[in-house]
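look at this:
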Amino acid sequence: MLYAAIFTGIIALAAALLFQAEILVLFVLAFLLIGAGPVLGYQMATGRLGGDWQAIIGGILSFILLILGWLLWPILVGALSRTQSIGNLFLGSITGIAVGIALFLLSVTVLGQNPSTIMVSFILIWIGWGATCGYTMAALEKPEL
């Protein structure tokens, strides 16, 4: 899902830049928005951007506990969305974690373990996770009642 990867990547880039600039409050806000990236990408691809605000709010709220957001995201987005199943979102999120970690390790291997390239690897983790979650949302959507 290209849109999900783009939205999540742009938000992760903003979070990384705010972290480097040492603006902690805005970094935390941007990090919370990473959870909304896959939902926004899915809605953009299906032509329903902004149509389901509850799923976007669920994505944002899931990242309050930072790293546990990977596991809370499917529960909150699935519970607040009428067209998504929690089980399918768990499948997508766990697969996205694996893809994100693989991209992180690949980028560290290629770019070297230079501290200046860690932000690129951080962004790639979230792009891999967001793209996989967005694809899962589009591929395994349940029909609205």
